[in-house]
Structures are given as structure tokens and as C-alpha cells.
Amino acid sequence: MATAQAAGWQRWFALSSGAGVVLGILWWLAAPGGAFYGEGKDYTIWVARDLVLAGLGVLAGLTAAVLLVRAAARHGGGAGATARLLAAAAGGLLGSVLAWRLGVFAGDLFQTPPDNLPNPSMVFSLRSASVLLLWPLVTTAVVFLYTFLAYSFVPAPRGSR
Questions:
Q1: Where are the domains of the chain?
Q2: Average pLDDT score, the chain
């Protein structure tokens, strides 16, 4: 039983952090100043670029939360559900960092910065590091709200009236 729980949380951590690689590539492809449109040196698109990563992080957090709730319904709650939630949140934080670094790496690799920029990473970078916290926060908040609402509306047993 303990090895099954250990494998369960390790799988959630690996899948959440591995999804960061996909998010990093999607961020570089979809964000202004990335692969398809916008000039990276234009400071007016920097907020939009950060918001694209924020949106991808929120979407990943919602997906992880839905999968966690479904897994808890299948396998039951308890310590296993808590371990899966903590592993998914920690993996989501690592996935956010991987997405950020991989997106910046892709920008550095495939784009040539102009000579007059003070730092070449300004072509494609993240300006608001707090965006990296959205994925694990959304995951834990949605699971908490679902659990709270599920326990709030549990009907009273018939014999207690």
C-alpha cells in the first residue's frame, strides 16, 4: 500500500512538472514577441507576454485540479489524496519555472536581438515572476473549494433527525 501511494505522488509530480515543458513551448509560440508575431524589444507587449504565460498557468492549474478531484473520487480521499495534491502543486511550481526558462531559452535560441539592447534576454522574457505561482495556487484553491463545497452540502444521516 505504501509503495502504491509513493508511486502515486511521484507520478503526479512528474506529470505536473513535465507539463511545464509543453507550456514553455506553447508560451513561446503564442506570446507576443515570441515565434509568430510582435517585436520583443517593444515594451508595450511585455504585459501581454506575461499574461499569456499566466493564462497557460491558470489553465494547467485547472486541468490538474479536475484530474485530482477525479482521482480522489476514484481512489478515495485521505492521506493519498493529500499527497497527490501536494505533489501536483510542487510539480506545478517546478513546471511553471520550467515553462518560463524553456520559453526564454527558445526566444534566445531562435531570435536575434538588436545590438542596442542592454540585455539580449529582453527580446523574450518574463517581467512578472509572480505569474509562476498561479499554477500551484489555482490547483490548490480549486481542490480546496471543491472539497469545501462537497462537505458543506453532504446530507445529514436519516437517523439523526
A1: 17-148
A2: 83
